[in-house]
Design goal:
The complex is a heterodimer. Chain A contains 14 helices and nine strands. By secondary structure, chain A is an alpha/beta fold. Chain A has a nine-stranded mixed β-sheet. In chain A, helix 1 packs parallel to helix 2 and helix 2 packs parallel to helix 3. By secondary structure, chain B is of the alpha+beta class. Helices cover 38% and strands 20% of the residues of chain B. Chain B has three helices and five strands, in the order E-E-E-E-H-H-H-E. In chain B, strand 2 and strand 3 form a beta hairpin. Classes of the chains: A alpha/beta, B alpha+beta. Chains A and B meet through strand 5 of A and strand 2 of B.
Chain lengths: 369, 91
Amino acid sequence: MSAPDRSAAVEPPLALLAELTHRCPLQCPYCSNPRALVGHGAELDTATWSRVLSEAAQLGVLQVHFSGGEPTARRDLVDLVRHAARVGLYSNLITSGVQLDGARLATLAAAGLDHVQLSFQDADDAGGDAIAAYAGAQAKKRAAAALVVAQGLALTANLVVHRRNLARLPAMIEMAAGLGAGRLEVAHVQYYGWALANRAALLPTAAQLVEADAVVAAARERLKGRVVIDYVPPDYHARQPKPCMSGWGRRFINITPSGKALPCHAAETIADLDFPSVTDHALAAIWRSSAAFQRFRGTAWMPEPCRSCDQREVDWGGCRCQALALTGDAARTDPVCALAPDHALIDDALAAPARDALVFRRFEKTTLP
Amino acid sequence: MNERPDAAYRFAPGVKLRFDETRQAWIVLAPERLFVPDEHAVEILKLIDGARTTAAIVDDLATRFDAPRATIEADVIELLQDLVDRGVLRR
């Protein structure tokens, strides 16, 4: 917590991602959680989460995303949703839906929940259940979606796509629109943590990507005015890196189940940064002046070719965690950038032979790469 | 153009207009997105209540801003269509 105070120049954050727990009944091999999961006993208690929500609203946060793991695994979820509403936060529940029943959903809606994001892993039961390693998951998700819509809540269907299910993207979009989702997020897997370990099994081909772009464009036109479709492309096929988190420490705060405050959910992989905990520090101090949030904020930290690039305040140098994961140095230009000195790493990954076997997300030590 | 003078509008599920004290600005909060509407859009969005029609919104604005009804009507219709396309409003 010691860095030059540039707090006057720091804009307030827009959103808080509250990872309430890493517990989850599903085992998706592209989970965005870190490989080292936080156990049940280390989770923050209700009072601490409530304080964090109050501090977030005070700081200028407008939206809170209750996520995980599976946030419905927390028995106090309804209390946290109610508290978020009380302090004026727009609340979003990011869930697999497999543990959601009508009674629980009704209490969440009554507590002030604004929106539910439900993930789908495939178009059909066989594919969906296999990738989640959970028999019956897909049917439970469809049932949960129907409950959300019946409750009058806004529903986003998050359709996670990769090499193994892209052929069924049109069917996934049809299914989600048919379930009554007002918004679809067609999200290509992003390669961190579990997904990076499974990259050779999941990375789409260039031809698949061209096809997916066309499918999304056609669906947007067909569903215009009825369903909004957001599209998250796979950055490995891009020439310019994504503006990860809209820039480090610019818009988002992520809180882990044990209370660490991170600029993005994968940031703990950057081992030489000391991420402050909300159990020790006020959120405003963490946001404005902690060394971890200042480290890659703005453009002063940038190496060439970012530093003199006219896109530096568009893509913010791409993703720090990706730079670390692929080059071993979080302060290098994101290798996705065609101008990055390490761009060959991306070409190599795209040219690498596809693998069949998957590493599933579990609470255990794995020895795979 | 799908707009009709007798069409009434409401916010889509999960969409809210809120004044943000921190930024001293009206903000539209929606599923995993938010945006800051310009001052014209704010005046229109404040009138969305599920009952008011396009004609009623135009009447209200024409009176309050003492502007020609035809000019206001064209702007309002264009903006409402845009907000429907973006999933903010529903008819």
